[in-house]
Amino acid sequence: MLWFLFYNNKLLVKINNDTIAIPNKKDLTGLEIKLEREIYIGSFDNSSCFAADFTNAPQSLPDGFNYMSLRKLFNKSCEDMFGMAGRAYQIMHWVRKNQFCGKCGSPMENKAGELSRKCPNCGTTIYPHISPAVIVAVVKEDKLLLARNINFPNSFYSVLAGFVEPGETLEECVYREVKEEVGIEVKNIKYFGSQPWPFPDSLMIGFTAEYAGGKIAVDHVELLTADWFSCSNLPVNIPNNKTIAGRLIKWFLLEGIYGLCSNNKR
Ligand SMILES: [Zn+2]
């Protein structure tokens, strides 16, 4: 049995020679912490997994234990473990926000047999909240569109992204976001892949698209600047391949130009 335990939004982990592990029941023996909002979240490494919060942190943690932010874990752990930790984080975020029924105010309970919370008074049932967002690599001839978001650290560039709105298809969202943020039109929007992004509850849905018209006019609300970059002059600070943004840029470098050129010939 593995326990994904959060204190102040940070995960309790065991670190041994740079290897990160999730504590099991035995590891927690003697650690006097009071668990809150416990919930079963599935299985990992053939073990049942539970998530919970605790607020009474011990003065000092036993040797090898530490608290780790999800961002740090993302950079340091393997994809599988991060997937489960991200799931735990996302579910706990949802549980914390839904202690009470939004309709009648009664305390909500976890429902047996499925991942949902139910109000014992009025029967309202809610499911984990996932916020879909599109992310898109827009290509114009042999160049890729990259932008600097106002929240990005200095000189960091990435592909465009934005949240899906109610009533919108994913393709409509791609078209709207690109038009809103940089003022250009796109065509030939194609699904690329997806990545859960539990910061705190997104699902990134990746696309590729071709430039169809217009001139770059940055909105200056979300973006500072945007431009076309060829393979040989990409910015130095771009997302790594652990992220779908990085994989879209890699796609552009390895297949994008060839793929689009061969499409155009057909
Ligand atoms: Zn209710």
Compact description:
The chain is an alpha+beta fold and 266 residues long.
Write the layout of secondary structure elements.
Layout: E1 2-7, E2 10-16, E3 19-21, E4 35-44, E5 47-54, E6 65-68, H1 70-76, H2 79-97, E7 109-110, E8 117-118, E9 125-126, E10 131-140, E11 143-149, E12 160-163, H3 170-182, E13 185-197, E14 202-213, E15 223-230, H4 244-265
Parallel strand pairs: 1-5, 10-14
Antiparallel strand pairs: 1-2, 2-3, 2-6, 4-5, 7-8, 8-9, 10-11, 10-12, 11-15, 13-14
Bound molecules: zinc ion.
Largest sheet composition: 6 strands, mixed
CATH topology of the largest domain: Nucleoside Triphosphate Pyrophosphohydrolase
- Write the CATH homologous superfamily of the largest domain: Nucleoside Triphosphate Pyrophosphohydrolase
Poorly predicted runs of 5 or more residues:
261-266
The residue fraction in helices comes out at 10-25%
Bound molecules: zinc ion
Arithmetic mean pLDDT: 92
Shape: globular
Oligomer: single chain
The amount of beta strand, in percent, is: 35-45%
- The CATH architecture of the largest domain: Alpha-Beta Complex
Instruction: List the helices and strands in order.
Output: EEEEEEHHEEEEEEHEEEH
Work out the radius of gyration.
Answer: 22 Å
Structural class: alpha+beta
